[in-house]
Write a structure and sequence with these properties.
This protein is mostly helical and 76 residues long. 91% of the residues lie in helices and 0% in strands. Keywords: ATP synthesis, Cell membrane, CF(0), Hydrogen ion transport, Ion transport, Lipid-binding, Membrane, Transmembrane, Transmembrane helix, Transport.
Length: 76
Amino acid sequence: MGLVALAAGICCCTGTFSAIGEAWICSHAIDGIARNPEMYGKLRSTMILAVALDESTAIYALIVAILIIFVLPSMF
């Protein structure tokens, strides 16, 4: 069970890095809007798309962690 917990913990680290990536994306989008306010619509839509793609990584990591915890031990 120890290695299963370790593997699930490593998968959960992906969620942390995903949150850091989302913060970086939003920060740079806000900087771009502050420098060039007329590009608000285009930057906002690009930011939303980038955050959605980044969030999907965290969701996939969560699914893998759940599968590791509940499915993997029953296979052996």
